[in-house]
């Protein structure tokens, strides 16, 4: 339970992240007040170029700055493609700043050595893989990571074909479940697939749920 009514700023690079994180907060921390800050051009540009530029980071910092000006207690970035840069961004602020997938990655490394990763954005697959490896090294663990990027699923959800998006991801979950101990869905937009799964043989982690629980826990531990 949340003992205080916190205000959290959500920084988005795609509309596809909005509904999953709002649903997660409504489920796990409904008392929290949320403010949304959006720049859809960021992910569109990243998908076109495949490169994260200094200008993109400046735009993320600007959005976080707008959140801070709105007197939020913490900031949560919801796009995993930019996660490697969030620790540096966080140094610019005096409130907790969390990347979309930090808590999910840490949980996966803590509990498994064979990890499957599914992404739908080209940049998110390698980014998640690299971050998992870094967390494993910090924990002195050796992990094997099997990563699949389904760009066709991202195109489907962008075009409003939710059923195709979900079916493509469900098929990959079934395949990766054979050789792995846990599966990560790399982006917020993919969390909806869990509702369509009839069963699961191994844990499937999504970043909205773990992010909400982590950021609220961080705030509750702060000395007022």
From the structure above, extract its key features:
224 residues, Rossmann fold, alpha/beta, 9 helices, 4-stranded parallel beta sheet, 2 domains
Q: Whole-number average pLDDT?
A: 91
Rg for CA atoms: 17 Å
Number of helices: 9
Strand proportion, as a percent range, falls in: 15-25%
CATH topology (fold) name of the largest domain: Rossmann fold
| Helical content (DSSP H or I, runs of 4+) | 40-55%
Tertiary shape: globular
Low-pLDDT stretches: none
CATH architectural group of the largest domain: 3-Layer(aba) Sandwich
The N- and C-terminal alpha carbons lie at a distance of 17 Å
Protein architecture, described:
- The protein is an alpha/beta fold.
- The chain has two domains: 7-100 and 209-221, 3-Layer(aba) Sandwich (Rossmann fold), CATH 3.40.50; 102-206, Rossmann fold, CATH 3.40.50.1860.
- Helices cover 46% and strands 17% of the residues.
- It has nine helices and eight strands.
- The strands form two sheets. The protein has a four-stranded parallel beta sheet, sandwiched between helices. A four-stranded parallel beta sheet has the order 6-5-7-8, sandwiched between helices.
- Helix 1 (18-28) crosses helix 9 (207-221) and helix 5 crosses helix 6.
- The longest helix has 16 residues, at 54-69.
- The radius of gyration is 17 Å and the shape is globular.
- The mean pLDDT is 91.
